[in-house]
Amino acid sequence: MITQNTLISEESESDLELELEMEMEKNEENGSTEEKLTGSICGYNSLQHLLSENLNPHLYQEVSRLLLGLNCGKALETIVIPESAKALSSKHDFDLQAFTFSADKELLREPRVVRVGLIQNSIALPTTAPFSDQKKAIFEKLRPIIDAAGASGVNILCLQEAWIMPFAFCTREKRWCELAEPVNGESTQFLQEFACKYNMVIVSSILERDINHGETLWNTAVIIGNNGNIIGKHRKNHIPRVGDFNESTYYMEGNTGHPVFETAYGKIAVNICYGRHHPLNWLAFGLNGAEIVFNPSATVGELSEPLWPIEARNAAIANSYFVGSINRVGTEIFPNPFTSGDGKPQHSDFGHFYGSSHFSAPDASCTPSLSRYKDGLVISDMDLNLCRQMKDKWGFRMTARYELYAEMFARYLKPDFEPQVITDPLLHKKSS
Ligand SMILES: NC(=O)NCCC(=O)O
User: Looking at the keywords, is Calcium present (predicted)?
Assistant: First the structure.
């Protein structure tokens, strides 16, 4: 029975306001109160935080079991983070969390444990600052977070979508195109040093300018190998045309298919942001053998927050791989107001990017999420053997009936396609 442990939604409005005020006061974390007010859930930095503070330990355990699932029959365990990484997180005020997904022991294969990190961040300077200063400030902001990942022994690190810039695609202003870089440009060079220093694979999502093909623009993930080499790139397949996400003004649908990159630490792929709403996009990376698929994103609460914890987790389950979901944080205000043809008054920001980066595993378990308003690094160990173990257990690949769907698509793509509908012969008969 929920009584004094009740969720705060049942409290009176004035109680709630008082509690929120007290929570904000006792909250020692840095960052502006205003950002926390817009970014928090009633003063809590994440759903897990809200629940853990308001439920008794037994109720919290039961709620977590249902919300986060179990991994090998147990709640996910946290892992010990080196003091040097913790010190960086306190000094530079970023959220730092670390977990481990295990798999069953096998008789013929050794465990294949890799340590993976995801970074979420807000921009570092106002969008009105000179572009080069904005970019440099983001580099400087990320430096200690990447160092914390390196100090923690992260093998594969992924940054958020278009991490070197504000998510300016809402504006439709062409001047933001200046922030596009070639695949081997400034941001890649910046990350190559870390890749070498920490023997780390890094996935970097940028606005790409393809110099060799008419200086065209793409939304691209660059895969940097642990020797600092560029392994390859993937271009975002599905471009949003929803709300303020006016990204088709800037770049076209990707032309790189669904590549899987075989790295020193496993087979990885990147499903960039809006591609997460397309189950076939997830499927294709799985068919090419991905063991971890990253979803670097930029999305706002009003549009997608109820979808966020579901889609990635479902993809991990359906495709028997791990998913790393990243969303940026904060509210980015642009100098010129814009509208997006949806009848809403003109405005100067997208709304709040709600962070909440996390991992999902093929056995339906997932980590708690990072903060809704703070920069953060979430780390997880994952035994990649779990991918095949879940394929063997559920048999989704073997029961998939791909031939049925191949035939369906072949028919659907023909101009004379007619939907397969069998109408009740009595439906249109006049009653006599
Ligand atoms: N960046 C991007 O594709 N955002 C689209 C919004 C969403 O998919 O939630």
Answer: no
Q: What are phi and psi of 154, to 5 degrees?
A: -65, 135
At 5 the pLDDT is 33
Select from 297, 299, 293 the least CA-distant residue to 314: 293
β strands within 9-112, DSSP E: 77-78, 95-101
Cβ of 272 below 6 Å from ligand 1? no
Ligand 1 pocket check for 161: Cβ under 6 Å? yes
Which are the contacts of 228, defined by CB distance < 8 A and separation ≥ 6?
Answer: 192, 193, 195, 196
- pLDDT tens readout for residues 249-268: 999 999 999 999 999 999 99
- What's the predicted TM-score (pTM) here? 0.91
Output the CA torsion 228→296→166→254 (10° steps).
Answer: 90
Ligand 1 centroid to 162 CA: how many Å? 12
Q: Kindly report, residue by residue over 30-57, the tens digit of the pLDDT.
A: 445 555 567 899 999 999 999 999 999 9
Side chain identity at residue 130, one-letter code: P
Distance CA 147, CA 85 (A): 8
Residue whose CA is at the smallest distance from ligand 1 atom 3: 274
Query: Of all protein residues, whose CA lies closest to atom 9 belonging to ligand 1?
Result: 299
